[in-house]
Amino acid sequence: MNAHRGRMVSGGRIQVPAEVRRILGMADGDPIIMEVVDDELRIRSYSASIRRIQAMLREFVPAGVSLSDELIADRRREAENE
C-alpha cells in the first residue's frame, strides 16, 4: 500500500505532503477533484480526470476516427443547408 501521512489544518484544509504532490504532478493552486467513495476521500487533478474520461470514451470510438473532425463536418453541412 502506498500510504502517506497528511494533516487536517485550520479551516478544514488538508495538508498534502510534497512527495504526494510530486507523484501526482500537482502544484499550488492547481484545480483538483475530490470524491468520497466508501468512506474514503479520493483526490485527483483535473488533468488526471480528463485522461481517465478520455480513456473510458476511447473504447467507443473506432480507430482512425476523429470525433472533432466529424463534428466540424456536421456543422458545415448544417450551415450549408441553412
Present the secondary structure layout.
Blueprint: E1 7-8, E2 14-15, H1 18-24, E3 32-37, E4 40-45, H2 46-58, H3 67-80
Antiparallel strand pairs: 1-2, 3-4
Number of strands: 4
Radius of gyration: 20 Å
User: Taking all residues together, what is the mean pLDDT?
Assistant: 90
Which regions are unreliable across 5 or more consecutive residues at pLDDT < 50? Answer: none
| Major sheet characteristics | 2 strands, antiparallel
Helix-strand sequence: EEHEEHH
Query: How far apart are the first and last residues' alpha carbons, in Å?
Result: 59 Å
Strand content: 15-25%
Count of individual helical segments: 3
Your description of this structure?
With 82 residues, the chain is an alpha+beta fold. Helix content is 41%, strand content 20%. The strands form two sheets. The chain has a two-stranded antiparallel sheet. A two-stranded antiparallel ribbon has the order 3-4. Strand 3 and strand 4 form a beta hairpin. 0% of the residues are buried.
Core attributes:
alpha+beta, elongated, 20% strand, two-stranded antiparallel ribbon
In short:
It contains 3 helices and 4 strands.
